[in-house]
Amino acid sequence: MTDAAAPRTKTPLPHRGRAWILGVALPVATTAAAWLWFLSQYSSLPEQVVTHWGPDGADGFGPRSEIILFGALLTGLTLVICCPLAVLLGRQSATRRMLIGLSAGAGFMMAGILVAITQANLTDPPGDPGALLLLVVVAALVVGVAAGAAAGDDPIVRATEPVPADAPRADLSPTQRAAWAKYTGLPMPVLIGFLVVVLGTAVLVAVVGEPLIAVVLAVALIALFLGFVYFRVTVDSRGLTARSFLGFTMLSSRADEIVRADVTEVSGLWDFGGWGLRTQVGTGVVGLVTRAGEAIRVERTGGRVQVVTVDDAATAAALLNTVAERARPVARIEDAELGSLADGTDPTSDLTTRGPGTGSRRPATGAAPRTPDSPETD
Asked: CA–CA separation, 74 vs 224, rounded Å?
C-alpha cells in the first residue's frame, strides 16, 4: 500500500481507563472467578473425567488433571494475547471497540468453557455440556458487544489547516452539493464457497440428529458473514461512512476531521494480513478490506488513517477533499458570504444554519468528467 502523505502528529490513545477496565480487568476477573469455582469443585471430580464429547456422547477420557492443563491453556493464552492488544492499540474507535470487545468476550468464553466442562463431570454419569456451552457462547457475544459499545467514541479533533493544494477535488460549483455511494464486498466465488461450506455443515449436523441447531447455525453464520464482508460506502457533506449489510457503521470519517483523501492500491494479505475490518499493528492504519486493488485512503487529524477498498475510489476521494475543504472554518464563513450576496442578508447574521457543504470560493479541479457513477448533484 502506497501512502500519499505521511500522517501528522499522533494524538494520545483515547479512553485508556476504559481499555484497562473492560479489556483487562473484566476478563481477568471473569477468569479468576472461574478458576476459584473450579478449585472449589476439584475434589468432587472423579479421578477419570470426560475430556471430549462426540455425536454419540462421551468418547474421550483422561485424568482430572487434564482439565487443569486444558483450562490453563485456554484462559492463559486468551489473556496473554488479548489484554495487551486492548491497551496498546486503539487510536481509532473501530480498532478500540474490536479489541476491547474481543478481550472481554473471549475472556468470558474461555472461562465459561472451563466451568461447563467441569460442571458436566460433576454428575454421575457425566452430563453433556452442549446446552451450557451454547449459553456460554451467547453470553460471551453479549459481553463482547457491550464492552465494545462502551469503549468510547473518538474525541473530535477538527482540522484547521487547508486541504493540500495537490489533493484532488470534485468538479462542483460553489453552490452545488453531491453524494456518492458504492457497494463493496468479497468476490462472488468466495461467497459461493462459504455458502457451500455452511450448508454442508448444516446438513451434517441435521443428519446426526440436531436439525434445530443446524438451522440456527446456518442462519447465524450467513448473517455474520454478510454483515462483516459486504458494505455500503457513502460520501456526502458529512464525510465518509461505511455500513455493513446488517446496518452497523463499521468506519466513518467526519468531514471536519479529514486532512486529505487519496487513491491507493491495497493487497489484503500483504498490507493487512487478511480481509474484513483490519488494523495494521505497526502503523495503526484501519482498513476495510474486501479485495485487492484500488482503495480510498483517508488521512484524519491526530495521525489517524483509514483505508476502504471500493470501485471508483478516485471520485470518492475527490469528493471527500471537496467536502473537507468546505467544512473548514474559513470555508464556512465564505459559504455564508456567498449566500448573503445571493439573498441580500448580513453574512455574519447566521453562519451556523448554513453549515459546511454549501459551497466554497475555491475552484474545483482534478475531477473526471461526469459518468453515470459520478456524484449526484442538486
From this structure: 24
**94, three cell numbers:** 473501530
- Strand ranges of the sheet holding 293-300, from the earlier edge strand across to the other edge: 258-266, 293-300, 304-309, 286-289, 276-279
What per-residue confidence (pLDDT) applies to 354?
Answer: 31
Q: Which residue stretches of the chain have pLDDT < 50?
A: 2-6, 333, 336-378
Look up cell 482439565; give the residue: 67
Q: Are 71 and 38 in contact (CB under 8 A)?
A: yes
Does an H or E element contain 50, and which? strand 48-54
The answer to whether 290 and 332 are in contact (CB under 8 A) is no
What does the domain layout of the chain look like in residue ranges?
16-149
Q: What is the DSSP string of 24-39?
A: IIHHHHHHHHHHHHHH
Q: For Cα atoms 301, 303, 306, give the angle at the middle one, nearest 5 degrees.
A: 85
Cα 321–Cα 323–Cα 329 angle in degrees, nearest 5: 105
pTM: 0.68
